[in-house]
Design brief:
Chain lengths: 342, 342
DNA sequence: CTGTTAGCGCCTTCAG
DNA sequence: CTGAAGGCGCTAACAG
């Protein structure tokens, strides 16, 4: 059995409360005594039981993190960045992988974080019901990757503007048949990103006077494999696209794979733009809309920490910048002489 | 304030103990009463406080996961897979990102998991001191990614054999100047993988009668950027390699990037083999030694669960298979007419 | 500056 | 089958 606070107290010859105070750096303990207590505690290998202390104090020193899928580069990077901030501040991280509809349902039904965490960082965008459940917890809440939301501190990017950047780049290169790989607006899990990126895409088409062709849109499920399937489908269109905007780099890479399988050259036969600036986008030469991914985690975690410290003027939404990075996967449309139309 | 067990007890008109028994499915409660209690609990939105119940019972229903860096594809995938297994069994996951020397030191010094988790899954290979600290916890311990270790249940691959697979492939293609991108054997964090993979590489060289040239080895730090730098360095050798074995796909991709920057063609000018079968290895056409990454997490988690259930005959080491996947980054050495020498 | 007294919310004996 | 008592290990008011 590990040492308890009482063992330490007896060894030093003081009361448990004094030990508690000394070890947590509270004042009201003479320096000399404190030093002695710390030494004895170290000697006995004593560490306060987090459970007991949070039961008694109400603070848990843990943060709940809700992610759809830590295996995906984007989310892994965000979680990683957030973890660094939290652990530096002495908080542990309780990770909930809510990728499947099932696990997500169960989580919100049981709310296993109740009384277990001091705050929650969600990498998934909750439905209104889910948001309400979260708010009922009465603790600081943050969402990364998404727009403003009442009751939450949010950090995100302007998805619509980012998508416009990508699409306009293709239009400027002279492309008129521009495909899109995204995902169904009505996916089982509530998630606005695809919707916004699609709108950005449509905005630019309208602006450029390009008629919208539903045949040029395909569902890539935001995965590499999905992107591959989607690209394959787009190639079967009566008039295939000459350029494609993939709403994530992972789907773009899947598209690249499909194109290679069909012996089509990029960008000569088809131009591709992705979104995110995945760490490997550079390796494959993918043109993409960059966003500071780790920054999502860092910022959200810092905001939560400030909320936990009762800081005033904590912003309730932070918008991160995006910018286009042109690499080798895009080039002027072969029909056009030069890229710049605008 | 959320409902407590007492609220439920009063609402039903029974004692707290009965509520506790009923809700946890213990017998000693009449069916009719149990149904009623469950209904009232649901109605009040009651969920037992994990802290209080673990304080009282000694069980925490949490698993500690130690990872070096969840942002890296490999670890993210393993954590993700493990999380699925644990959460299906009702366990929460406490994630510790121990990538930096600092955080790692602090973790082992304070051991914040003490009395907070029922078992530990480590994705990093502990030093002997660290292993001892973990054993002192007296709970089931597992290490994924590594060889057998007393006191731990381990699941891993045969790194040396895997590296031999990669190197032999290059030898069979007629290459004689074979470079290696790995990392310093004496990296700050104890970790045997690079050592073993290097040995596999050396084994094959010796076997093929190829003299070892230290100039052909470079440190890629197991990252994309590191791999890029390492490849760049290898190109400055008096007699550069005609083929390179990169000990991870991420380093291999970095190497690919460096080669592109130098306008060298793969595999015509230089052949590259990676290790892991990263989800994007296929996209870039990388020949690699595949290992079932998610399986590491799934297996280790399942073993831990069995240990937690006091199952008998839980194996203390599980070895996962590796195999070579040949894609487009390798080809016969230009000097050789055919690949097969063996 | 330090000790005492009560709990935090639940589970686990033990009686009935 | 059910209830009462005690305690898990710690912290927070109070006293002194």
């Amino acid at each position: 059995m590990a040492a308890s606070i009482i063992d330490v107290a007896q060894a030093v010859g003081v009361s448990p409360s004094t030990v508690s105070r000394a070890l947590r750096g509270r004042d009201g303990v003479s320096d000399e005594l404190r030093v002695r207590i710390i030494a004895v505690a170290a000697d006995l290998g004593y560490t306060a039981s987090r459970n007991a202390s949070s039961l008694a104090s109400g603070r848990t020193c843990s943060i709940g993190v809700l992610a759809p899928y830590v295996g995906r580069w984007f989310f892994g990077t965000v979680v990683d960045a957030a973890e660094r901030v939290f652990s530096a501040a002495g908080y542990d991280l309780l990770l909930y992988n809510l990728g499947s509809v099932d696990s997500r349902k169960r989580f919100f039904a049981e709310l296993p974080v109740r009384k277990r965490v001091d705050a929650i960082l969600s990498l998934l965008i909750p439905t209104e019901d889910e948001a309400e459940r979260l708010r009922s917890l009465g603790i600081p809440l943050a969402i990364t990757v998404g727009g403003p939301r009442p009751g939450f501190t949010t950090v995100g990017i302007d998805d619509r503007a980012g998508a416009e950047l990508a699409t306009r780049h293709l239009v400027n290169l002279g492309h008129r048949r521009i495909g899109r790989i995204g995902t169904q607006p009505s996916a089982p899990l509530y998630w606005t990103t695809p919707d916004l990126r699609r709108r950005g895409y449509l905005d630019v088409l309208v602006d450029a006077g390009i008629p919208h062709d539903p045949d040029l849109e395909a569902d890539g499920e935001y995965t590499v494999e999905g992107g591959e399937r989607a690209m394959t489908r787009l190639l079967t269109a009566v008039r295939p696209p000459t350029a494609v905007f993939a709403e994530s780099d992972e789907m773009a890479m899947g598209a690249l794979r499909a194109l290679r399988a069909h012996r089509l050259r990029v960008p000569e036969d088809i131009a591709i733009v992705g979104f995110d600036d995945h760490e490997l986008a550079d390796v494959v030469g993918l043109t993409t809309v960059a966003q500071p991914v780790a920054e999502h985690g860092t910022q959200a975690a810092s905001l939560l920490l400030r909320l936990l410290r009762d800081d005033t003027d904590v912003p309730d939404h932070v918008e991160l910048p995006t910018h286009l990075i042109v690499r080798n996967s895009t080039a002027p449309h072969r029909g056009s002489l030069h890229g710049g139309i605008e």
